[in-house]
Write a structure and sequence with these properties.
With about 250 residues, this protein is α+β, with helices and mostly antiparallel strands. The chain folds into two domains: about 110 residues, Lipocalin (Beta Barrel), CATH 2.40.128; about 120 residues, no CATH class. Helix content is about 15%, strand content about 40%. The chain has four helices and 14 strands. The protein has an eight-stranded antiparallel barrel. The radius of gyration is 22 Å and the shape is elongated. About 20% of the residues are buried. The N terminus is likely disordered.
Length: about 250
C-alpha cells in the first residue's frame, strides 16, 4: 500500500487513516457519494438494503449491489456485467475521504446525506429526454422520434394514438430476445432513470401477470401533465420480450 503511505508523507500534522468495516458502513449506508471517476463527475447512492445506484454525467444510471467485508475492512460492489465482487479501502486524510485499491490511486470523494442522485444545480439529461418525450402529446404529427434509447439495443419504434375519450398518448417499444437478460437489465435501467425524474409520490404497480407464456411487469409514474408507464412484456407467440415506454395525457 505505497500509495497510502504517500498520503501521509506530505505533512507532519495529518495522517491517513484506514476506516474499519463498521465505520465504512456508517459512512455510506443511506447516503450519496459525490466525486470524479476517470475525470467525469459521478454520484452513487448506497441503500441500506444492499443495492447501489451509480449515476455519471452523460450516462445512464446503473444498479448494482454493495457490501462490507468485515475481515478486510473493505467496501465491495458488483454490477450486472461483473464476474466477481471488487473491493476498495476507504481512507480518511485531513478530513477528506478517498477510495484506494491496488488498481486505484487515492481518489477523493465527498458524502452527502440521504439519496441525492440528481444534482439540483443542473438538469438530469435523462429527465430532459423524458420531458421532450411527453411533449409529443401536444404534437399533431403521426410519426414520433424520441431520443430515449438504450446502449447496444435497436432504436425504439414509436407512434402516437388518441383514445376514445380523447386522451392522447405516445408510446415506444424496444424488442429483445425472448426473456433475455438484456431485456430485464434495460428495463431496470429505465426504471432507475425514471425514478430520478419524479418526486417520491409516484404510483408503482408491479408483479402483474397473465397466462404463461405471456407475462408483464408494469410501473406507473405520474406528473402534473402525464402518466408515464414503463413495462416489460413477454410475447410467447413472437418469441420476443419488449420494453415499452408510454406517456398518456391526464384529461
Amino acid at each position: 500500500m505505497i500509495a497510502l503511505l504517500c498520503m501521509a508523507a506530505g505533512g507532519a500534522a495529518a495522517q491517513s487513516v484506514k476506516l474499519k468495516a463498521n465505520e465504512i458502513e456508517a459512512l455510506l449506508s443511506g447516503n450519496t457519494v459525490v466525486g470524479k471517476w476517470d475525470g467525469t463527475t459521478y454520484r452513487q447512492f448506497f441503500d441500506a438494503d444492499g443495492t447501489t445506484i451509480f449515476a455519471q454525467d452523460g450516462m445512464r444510471s446503473a444498479l448494482g449491489q454493495w457490501r462490507i467485508d468485515p475481515e478486510r475492512d473493505e467496501y465491495q460492489s458488483i454490477w450486472p456485467r461483473d464476474a466477481a465482487w471488487e473491493g476498495w479501502y476507504v481512507m480518511e486524510y485531513a478530513g477528506d475521504y478517498f477510495w484506494v485499491s491496488k488498481k486505484t490511486p487515492p481518489t477523493p470523494f465527498a458524502v452527502v446525506e440521504g439519496q441525492q442522485l440528481v444534482n439540483t444545480e443542473q438538469e438530469n439529461p435523462f429527465c430532459g429526454q423524458i420531458s421532450r418525450f411527453a411533449e409529443h402529446l401536444d404534437s399533431t404529427e403521426t410519426t414520433v422520434t424520441v431520443d430515449v434509447d438504450f446502449p447496444d439495443t435497436p432504436h425504439a419504434t414509436c407512434s402516437r394514438s388518441i383514445a376514445t375519450g380523447g386522451a392522447q398518448s405516445v408510446h415506444c417499444s424496444w424488442p429483445f430476445a425472448y426473456r433475455s437478460v438484456a431485456a430485464r437489465q434495460n428495463f431496470d435501467t429505465l426504471l432507475l432513470n425514471l425514478a430520478q425524474c419524479f418526486d417520491k409520490g409516484i404510483t408503482v404497480s408491479s408483479g402483474q401477470g397473465v397466462n404463461h407464456p405471456d407475462s408483464y411487469d408494469l410501473r406507473l409514474f405520474t406528473s402534473d401533465k402525464a402518466a408515464i408507464t414503463a413495462s416489460l412484456k413477454d410475447k410467447g407467440a413472437l418469441q420476443q420480450t419488449f420494453v415499452f415506454l408510454r406517456a398518456e395525457s391526464l384529461r
